[in-house]
Automatic annotation (TrEMBL):
Its cofactor is Zn(2+). The keyword Zinc applies. This is Zn-dependent hydrolase, glyoxylase. InterPro entries: MBL_Glyoxalase_II, Metallo-B-lactamas, RibonucZ/Hydroxyglut_hydro. Keywords: Hydrolase, Metal-binding, Zinc. Pfam families: Lactamase_B. Residues 15-193 form the Metallo-beta-lactamase domain. One of its GO terms (molecular function) is metal ion binding. It comes from the Bacteria. The keyword Endoplasmic reticulum does not apply.
Length: 210
């Protein structure tokens, strides 16, 4: 029986999914891709009566990290990101913040590597680097809970854009193939935008499926 509770908010101009992953037993909580509206996100944390432990970023575009620094300061928690994403986070011309009328940068507290296994909020998390949308895009896989947070790599019957700086269509295809090949079919997929899906569904309907 999983101890995981997953709730979400849709925030920001590009309707980004922000996820709240809470341990039922300890009430420890992780925030995935706090895109914008830090006040709303903090209110959701309080509504869930959770204790934030970390922010997890699937990649370094502004529409996924816009509220990260405010939440880091409010709750005294670290921001985690894949190591190859440092350039994206630190360069407004790469992290798309000018598209939102801003020139924003962010420095993560902890940089992760492909294949790394970490434990946060009582959950075992596997870091899967999935370049294509950006060079340091990653997915967070919770094997014991059968859940993947896929950011802008894998969408329901689709996949992330590859025409932004550091994007690459060949790498995107390879990343999608990796997810569909390596993960169990009953894995629930929570993407950065739009509807949830599953690995089984994407094996059948994703345009990049092999």
């Amino acid at each position: 029986m999983s101890n995981m509770i997953i709730q979400s908010l849709v925030v920001g101009a590009i309707q980004t999914n922000v996820y709240f992953i809470m341990n039922k037993e300890t009430k420890e909580l992780l925030i995935v891709d706090p895109a914008d509206e830090a006040g709303r996100i903090a209110e959701k944390v309080r509504e869930m009566q959770g204790t934030p432990k970390a922010v997890l970023l699937t990649h370094g575009h502004y529409d996924h990290f816009g509220a990260a620094d405010a939440l880091r300061k409010e709750f005294g928690i670290d921001v985690y990101c894949e190591e190859h994403e440092q350039q994206v986070l630190s360069d407004p011309s790469v992290n798309t913040s000018p598209m939102h009328g801003l020139s924003a940068v962010l420095k993560a507290d902890r940089y992760l590597t492909d294949g790394q296994q970490i434990e946060l909020a009582g959950f075992e998390i596997h870091v899967l680097r999935t370049p294509g949308h950006t060079t340091g895009s990653c997915c967070f896989y919770f094997p014991k809970d059968g859940v993947l947070f896929s950011g802008d790599t894998l969408f329901c019957e689709s996949y992330g854009r590859t025409d932004f700086p550091t994007g690459n269509s060949r790498e995107m295809t390879e990343s999608i193939h990796r997810l569909l090949r390596e993960l169990p079919e009953d894995t629930a997929v929570y993407p950065g935008h739009a509807l949830n899906t599953s690995i089984a569904w994407e094996k059948r309907y994703n345009p990049l499926a092999f």
